[in-house]
Amino acid sequence: xxxxxxxxxxxxxxxxxxxxxxxxxxxxxxxxxxxxxxxxxxxxxxxxxxxxxxxxxxxxxxxxxxxxxxxxxxxxxxxxxxxxxxxxxxxxxxxxxxxxxxxxxxxxxxxxxxxxxxxxxxxxxxxxxxxxxxxxxxxxxxxxxxxxxxxxxxxxxxxxxxxxxxxxxxxxxxxxxxxxxxxxxxxxxxxxxxxxxxxxxxxxxxxxxxxxxxxxxxxxxxxxxxxxxxxxxxxxxxxxxxxxxxxxxxxxxxxxxxxxxxxxxxxxxxxxxxxxxxxxxxxxxxxxxxxxxxxxxxxxxxxxxxxxxxxxxxxxxxxxxxxxxxxxxxxxxxxxxxxxxxxxxxxxxxxxxxxxxxxxxxxxxxxxxxxxxx
Length: 374
Prior knowledge:
eight-stranded parallel beta barrel, alpha/beta, disordered N terminus
């Protein structure tokens, strides 16, 4: 049985987290939609922290359609309603913030060219070559992260998570594939950390100035890239060692499997999360995510000394996961997603289309009640 009460954060009621997941349901201008508010209200309340889908901090930072924006004070009313919806029954509302960088397009940016650390296209089909940001523009984006944090505080969120993962701008600056700069934001591995560390300073400054009660600062990281050159685990462990002393409150490790080993060094059989745990050495708590569905799987992660476990796809299928575990009703947990339950679960057509792309990972059940994926 999960021990849901013990946690190193006295203010967080348990060790289960909903990670940020794309639902593509915001309005075209980036405002919070009624569909999103219903979805948040349906899925919150059980977990200790609910990390909301990502919001862009700059006008040229949007990465996909239906994405939240936190670029202007005009978004505060909707974001306030969003934070209020998530903070049900003591769940902490965390807003992930980012800049997409080169992982966007002129179509999404309505004719504006994408930007990045350097003018290097992503190694993806139909990727557009971005424009290299000037030093002044980089400095402005750092300010934008601070301003986004100020808005998150004013909207009533309990924290922000910096999205330094999944190939977006913060990772692009750290990556030797996308960062060929020769100013202070480029160069060796330490130079490529500079942008992200300056963002952390900007965010912490906003927290110190505007927060009147404890405000959580998290950081999400992708440990490796397969590109050549690209981020290798040795680079990440150097970065993690610095991040652990940077003033963040947790480190969120973004992987498809919680127990994934190195993509680049097949001889290394130690799970990446354990390498990171050893490097951090208790300085900041970790969140592990990736194909965790059952209470036993969650417990295995926590038994390995990982402070928080995140339920992604499973939290979509079963909004009452934590409540059922606490009530001893584990045999009633849903591990499949019946398409007939979409409306009840707050999954609108835009979100449903995105989930369809995940295919078998969502464990869809067809109309006849049979698993479409065997």
